[in-house]
Structure of Methionine gamma-lyase:
Amino acid sequence: MAAELKNHGAVLSGKKRSAGHDDGAEDNNDYVVAKKSMPFFSSPAAMARYDPAAALASARHEFGEHGGVNMSIEASATFTVMEPETMRRMFSGELGPDRDFFIYSRHFNPTVLNLGRQMAALEGTEAAYCTSSGMSAISSVLMQLVSSGENIVASRTLYGGTHALMAHFLPRVANITTTFVDIHDMEMVRNALVVGKTKVLYCESISNPTLNVADIPELSRIAHEKGVMLVVDNTFSPMFLSPASLGADVVVHSISKFISGGADIIAGAVCGPASLVNSMMDLHQGSLMLLGPTMNAKVAFELSERIPHLALRMKEHCNRAMVYATRMKKMGLKVVYPGLEDHPQHKLLKSMINKEYGYGGLLCVDMETEERANRLMNLLQNYTQFGFMAVSLGYYETLMSCSGSSTSSEMNAEEKKLAGISPGLVRMSVGYIGTLEQRWSQFEKALSRMQDSGLFKN
Ligand SMILES: Cc1ncc(COP(=O)(O)O)c(C=O)c1O
């Protein structure tokens, strides 16, 4: 069975339980906690100095069972005990993953826990746990924090699936209602929060697809005044924006996007206080435990091998998006990019970001009509090979979709109008493979074809 590995210091752990192990003798209580010395932001005063790259580098590193530089995958659904009494102690909560006791992988799994530690380090939260999709992370956290008869206040510019969850699914199955607001109108937000009834204020740090930026410190202040938790979806801005350092209580992710980077895995995470993660795993009342959107250990291993190069990837996504947005604007296109000074929340984002990355890998081009949007995307994929017509984001190739008729199609015409989604809005997730100039010349070639056919004038 597992050999005890050499101790490489506090942040390194290859500890495995061995056959002769005395059940209950070990004490290692950091199972959902990133690292005891990790900053856990109780006040926004610590904001803007958070460094996810440094935090990730000092998070505990798991070695493989045979001393491999990479951890071993704990591919077991169930776990043995050495003494029958241990099972009872585990089920009573006396022994748990904090002491390396595992019951069953829908509850806790060591490999998934390790990815959770990385996610907690990335977001600067006390704990994190990973799920089978971004939607399961979002729905589980909402169902844990909000009960029947209670309320959510949410931004009206959200990913279509999240919007549908709140507008249609939660009211029907759980009697949980949502009031949608303009999160830039602080008076409207304040008035919507009802003390005692509203449990969550929910927004995306950078919204899908309109790229509005949430004023996280201010939203956090208003929410906390009313005893409400601020939950932020940080899918569009890993590494360069750290909502917990700005006052968010919980950060959710669709790992399927930038964090995965390969457009080959669907996954999610909930990052927040250890008490929240533990409550979601409660055997009687935990939404993750009882709804069961578990991440597979093999998937967790794959993802944990990609997190070390997330910083490098984000820098290049951001760099290219900034260059293309600047050039597109110069060409006379209607571009939405929070890195451009004419973006309504440019200054706000600048005041919140972690330095050295930029302003994100997504930009939007508003072609005004769906016909022109489709023509542009068609040329960019099938004539010049600039990118692919596909939903999702964070891939190494550029992905483009017309949001109104795809990822936001769950919204009705009025909701789209309120969210600022024009019928010709093309969302681009800017990739980084190929050279920047090679890719730019592909864009220019497609646009001049649009000009030839009279569909674009500058
Ligand atoms: C901002 C945002 N949050 C959440 C989700 C849902 O994540 P997943 O597809 O991993 O369930 C998506 C997209 O799918 C998204 O764009």
Observations:
- The CA atoms of residues 158 and 296 lie 28 Å apart.
- The mean pLDDT is 90.
- The pocket of pyridoxal-5'-phosphate is lined by residues 133-135, 159, 161-162, 204, 208, 233, 235, 254, 256, 266, 268 (CB under 6 Å).
- The chain is about 35% helix and 15% strand.
